[in-house]
Structures are given as structure tokens and as C-alpha cells.
Design brief:
Elements (H helix, E strand, L loop, with lengths): L8 H7 L1 E3 L2 E5 H8 L3 H10 L9 E3 L2 H11 L13 E3 L1 H10 L3 H37 L5 H11 L31
Antiparallel strand pairs: 1-2, 2-4, 3-4
Helix pairs in contact: 2-3, 5-6
Length: 186
């Protein structure tokens, strides 16, 4: 029987972001999962900088941080961060287990690694499906073109429909009459 999870898989999956071509997790998300303060995690990482090369961990630029803040809708005022956050790649998260040595950190790290593997498998499955569909499309010519087009449409993310810009009047022509004055005879 599997052990109960310390952190729900959905929470881990929501915390995995795509940035600079990598799947990353931010220091604050990792710290909350490990049950430590963000400054404690960053301090432990800085004490062991040689274990975290640039492909394991990097600090976000101001623009990247602003984009993330805008994306998640957090405000600037009343608290927040004084320093730009650190982003950890999958290898960086694995290295964190050697820096944070608590039993909780080890368990959470195992769960995070499973989430990364699961995400990689889902991406691979989608790529395999697209490859198989392309092979079938080459094999069967025009007789199944409609079927393949329908399957591709189902695989594609939905496009938002745009409403036409402007004001449109839906009534028939206006029934205005021009009154003509009769010339009075004096």
C-alpha cells in the first residue's frame, strides 16, 4: 500500500512552470512544500553554491518576475519579496535533497521527482500521438482526410472567438418623413 503523500500531486504540478526553455519550480513554492521559510532555503543553497550550477538554478530577471507577478495577479505593495526569486530546474530540485537533510525534505523531494517524471511522460504521450496521427495520415490518403482534420481539431487548443468591433443596428430602415411647408398665400 502506498504511503500517504505529504504534498498533493496537483499542488506540485501547479507549481511547475516553464521558463527559459526549462521546467522550473520557484524557491517560495519549494520552501512551502519542504516546510521551511524561503530565506532558510535560499541561505542553505548559497552555503552550497558549488552544487547549483546555472543549469540547476538561476535567479529570475526583473522582467521575468514582473511577468510572473502579472500572470498570477499578485500586488506589489504590503510585503512581498525584496529579492528576485530563484528558479530550480529538475536537477536543482534533486540537488536540494542533499542540502536540506530533514526527513520531510527527502519525502517531498521524492514526490516532486515523481511529478516531473509524470509530466515528462504526458508530454511524450502527446508527442507520440501526434507522430502516429501523421503516419496514419500519410498512409491513408484523401478518403480519411475529414476524419484526420476532425481529430487534429480536437487535439488543438480552442481559439477564443472574437466579437466584431463596432455598433450594429438591427432594425429596418427608419420611417422618417420630411414635412414640407406649404407656401401661404397672402
Amino acid at each position: 500500500m502506498p504511503e500517504p503523500s505529504l504534498v498533493p500531486m496537483e499542488r506540485i504540478e501547479r507549481a511547475i512552470l516553464a521558463l527559459r526553455g526549462h521546467k522550473i519550480m520557484l524557491d517560495a513554492d519549494l520552501a512551502s512544500m519542504y516546510g521551511v521559510e524561503t530565506k532558510v532555503l535560499v541561505r542553505a543553497v548559497k552555503r552550497n553554491e558549488e552544487r547549483f550550477p546555472s543549469d540547476f538554478m538561476f535567479q529570475l530577471s526583473q522582467d521575468e518576475f514582473e511577468n510572473l507577478r502579472f500572470h498570477f495577479g499578485t500586488s506589489r505593495s504590503w510585503g512581498g519579496r525584496r529579492h528576485l526569486p530563484y528558479a530550480f530546474t529538475e536537477q536543482g530540485v534533486a540537488m536540494l535533497s542533499s542540502v536540506l537533510r530533514s526527513p520531510r525534505a527527502v519525502q517531498v523531494n521524492i514526490e516532486i521527482m515523481r511529478a516531473f517524471v509524470r509530466l515528462r511522460q504526458m508530454l511524450q504521450t502527446n508527442a507520440d500521438l501526434a507522430r502516429k496521427l501523421a503516419a496514419l495520415e500519410k498512409k491513408y490518403d484523401t478518403q480519411f482526410k475529414v476524419v484526420f482534420d476532425a481529430i487534429r481539431a480536437l487535439m488543438a487548443p480552442p481559439r477564443p472567438q472574437r466579437r466584431p468591433i463596432g455598433f450594429r443596428v438591427e432594425e429596418a430602415g427608419a420611417g422618417y418623413r420630411i414635412r414640407r411647408r406649404r407656401a401661404r398665400s397672402r
